[in-house]
Amino acid sequence: MTLRSITLGTGQHRLQTSALGYGAMSLAGAYGAITEADSISLLEHVAQREVTFLDTANIYGDGASERILGTFLRHRRSEFVLASKVGIEKGAGVGKRRARGDAGYIKEQIDQSLRRLGTDHLDLYYLHRVDPDTPIEESVGALGELVTAGKVRTIGLSEATGEEIARGHAVHPITAVQSEWSIFARDVETHVLPTCARLGIGFVPYSPVGRGLLTDSFESEALPADDIRQNFPWFMPQNLPHNAALVTRVRDIAARLELPTAGLALAWLYQRAAALGVEISPIPGTRTAAHWDQLQRGVDVELPDAALTELNGLAAEVSGDRSFDPRWVSGGREGLLPRR
């Protein structure tokens, strides 16, 4: 599988990387257990598929994801574009953590992340969530100081609103914005993506296959009790049967086009991004090599107009919001969530 390159951002703050990245939250057990040996094996497989963009965060498994990536990257750090995040304090679990973006915290956490990752710099460092108690200007200013210090090459924001992105970009150039975006979750198209297009900021969609919903392998009755998805409205008992029926429609479209459903979901993203004028590198996460190959099949597929029309109408039919707390994501703070 030959994987093309893309450029996030513009000017001296641009970052060249693969058109598809790996989201390493899965290595911390969020969607089920995986051993460190299996994690390393999976990362080797992803690297063999010419993926050079690896994304993690200090909060994933309380540093476990970063440590595993650090092991994998030993003696080969220069082969990869490495991104991590700061801005969520450890709490009692999903929905019980808080955003923290003050300058002191950011400068403290970078050194811990670099130590776990076994490197002296990150290629991209995101503010994981916007702190409601800290002006975005302070958070971005601190990230910018890390660039000056040589600890970070470029900076990004995650789940920031269009207005927050513009304010942050005025302090220091933002290279990439990361937010959830998929066939089922499209609120970023209203304000966030137009802002990125206008300012020349790249976009990194996380959960591009709807946390596993938009795949051929998802089985609603097999969701483990400790799976992180149990906390998200799409997967709750009052919403999941309806959403699973929508997934069946997506699978039918994929079957007609002889694509894996996950590959179809990625192909839709690339075409939608091109229509909106943004450069993207999605970061799906998986625990199996076979699932990765299904995803990657969608990178350079052009979907027919009829399929795009069918897929474009599905988000309005999804039951439940994409987040357990609308304030936790950009669409909620922009008044786009909740729908129902």
UniProtKB/TrEMBL annotation:
Keywords: Oxidoreductase. GO terms for cellular component: cytoplasm. InterPro entries: Aldo-Keto_reductase, NAD(P)_OxRdtase_dom_sf, NADP_OxRdtase_dom. Residues 20-313 form the NADP-dependent oxidoreductase domain. The keyword Oxidoreductase applies. GO terms for molecular function: oxidoreductase activity. The keyword Oxidoreductase applies. Transmembrane segments: none annotated. Pfam families: Aldo_ket_red. This is Aryl-alcohol dehydrogenase-like predicted oxidoreductase. It comes from Nesterenkonia jeotgali.
